[in-house]
Amino acid sequence: MSQPRTLGELRVSQLAERVSVREEMRRNLLRKLRAREPVFPGVVGYDDSVIPQITNAVLSKHNMILLGLRGQAKSRILRSLTSLLDPAVPVVAGCEINDHPLSPICRRCHDLIAAMGDDTPVAWLAPEARYVEKLATPDVTIADIIGDIDPIRAARGGLDLASELTMHYGLLPRAHRGIFALNELPDLAGRIQVGLFNILQEGDVQIKGYPVRLPIDVSMVFTANPEDYTARGKIITPLKDRIGSEVRTHYPTTIEHGVAITLQEAWTARAPGLLIPRWVREVVEAVAFAARRDKKIDRRSGVSQRLPISALENAVSNAERRALVSGETPVVPRVSDIYASLPSLTGKFELEYEGELVGAENVARELIREAVGEVFSTYLGSADLKQVVRFFEEGGTLRIREGSTSAEVLMQLRRVPEVLDNLTALGVDPGGPEALQAAAGEFVLEGLWAQKKIGRSDDRGFVATERRADLEIDMEHLERLRRLKKQVN
């Protein structure tokens, strides 16, 4: 059945039903729930926390606000709400505020329908066209949100300024019969927040200077960072009271959820033959988890999920560059490539005073080391690596340059007894690609260093533990003291 193109055709069709936006969203959500369809495809880690709360808000026909730190998928969720709208809805063609042909609210549509009757043209809106989003900034005016007089339109049309036809509609009326999303609500000036009272409670807006009320049909959703209540602004209490549901978002609660999000969002499908080991993905994700609990990092600011996404992309780029120079395939990132991604880490967190003293790069290096140690314990915590440790305790050293080819790395690793005998625990076939074996062998050494079982020097590479080196220095110092005592005596 083709869509009606005039008001007359719409009246006799089966598509003339008129329901509110929130009723429409509720109806479509119920259909999804009955069909066991995912409510928000692509949103990972919220199945048992955030999504049920949003579902309850929509079923209750509430306006809602998402409270959470940066990088917690708030904007993605808002934009996913369009999946709860009908595939297409009728509007009066050319209407600025998407009037329903059977119940218009603006003066232009009233006059058009009075003049053309059943011949009034009808257009159809897709869900994406019914979503209006605005980032709240201190310079936003009430005219931007609600509307104002347009003297130029009045002059061009020869209209009196008191005419409704001279209105310039703001973003909120233009979201009529759709979803209006306002990001970072606390940044909106208090006097502008007051302008939202009517639409939230009475369901209408009043345009400045006009004795007219527009019964806007809109579902309103907001986002805010809880710390912004005091850092940059706040949500005024009467407005908070009028928002039906407050939903708290959060960062991934497990490494698996974090890996799934980064796998979905990071741009890694770019090099033919690219192979990213599972433990590399987990180390990158563990860096974000370590940062979120580190006392040197400001927890109130949060550590965005963009940190592991950017870090993985940067690590893959470093591995890609090395592989191109050496002519190797496949491209396999190593732990050293994660260290090379420091520029994508240091800008993703805010430091406390203690962290400022240490420096962002040093903090980031320690986070990577901690993450490697945690992932190493997961895969090789029970492995017998005494022979590897003994090699370094007996004076052995191993220097692996960041740009070393896989063959060069393997040549070095074969000098260390049993270091390559535990690769199966990492899911690596001993007869597999050299690049994968090299990455796994380096991970073993990095894990031992992270757990302080061996040491690492910028000059000499992997060496005996710093504790052993310190002990040797102390023994030499003690021997010198003994010799001096004998000379004195």
What this model shows, in words?
The chain has 489 residues and is α/β, with parallel strands linked by helices. It has 2 domains: 7-248, Rossmann fold, CATH 3.40.50; 255-468, no CATH class. The protein has 22 helices and 13 strands. It has helices spanning 7-12, 21-34, 50-59, 74-80, 107-116, 142-145, 151-157, 171-174, 190-194, 197-201, 228-231, 237-242, 255-265, 278-293, 306-326, 335-339, 353-358, 360-380, 386-393, 406-413, 434-450, 466-488, and strands at residues 64-67, 89-92, 122-125, 131-135, 147-149, 167-169, 178-183, 205-206, 213-214, 218-224, 245-248, 455-457, 461-463. The strands form 5 sheets. The protein has a 5-stranded parallel β-sheet with strand order 4-7-10-1-11. Strands 2-3 form a two-stranded antiparallel ribbon. A hairpin with a 6-residue loop joins strand 8 (205-206) and strand 9 (213-214). Helix 13 (255-265) crosses helix 15 (306-326). The longest helix is centred in the C-terminal third of the chain and has 23 residues, at 466-488. The radius of gyration is 31 Å and the shape is elongated. The termini are far apart. Residues 468-475 have low confidence and may be disordered.
Compact overview of the structure:
It is built from 22 helices and 13 strands.
Q: What are the SSEs and their pairings?
A:
Elements: H1 7-12, H2 21-34, H3 50-59, E1 64-67, H4 74-80, E2 89-92, H5 107-116, E3 122-125, E4 131-135, H6 142-145, E5 147-149, H7 151-157, E6 167-169, H8 171-174, E7 178-183, H9 190-194, H10 197-201, E8 205-206, E9 213-214, E10 218-224, H11 228-231, H12 237-242, E11 245-248, H13 255-265, H14 278-293, H15 306-326, H16 335-339, H17 353-358, H18 360-380, H19 386-393, H20 406-413, H21 434-450, E12 455-457, E13 461-463, H22 466-488
Parallel strand pairs: 1-10, 1-11, 4-7, 7-10
Antiparallel strand pairs: 2-3, 5-6, 8-9, 12-13
Helix pairs in contact: 13-14, 13-15, 14-15, 14-18, 18-21, 20-21
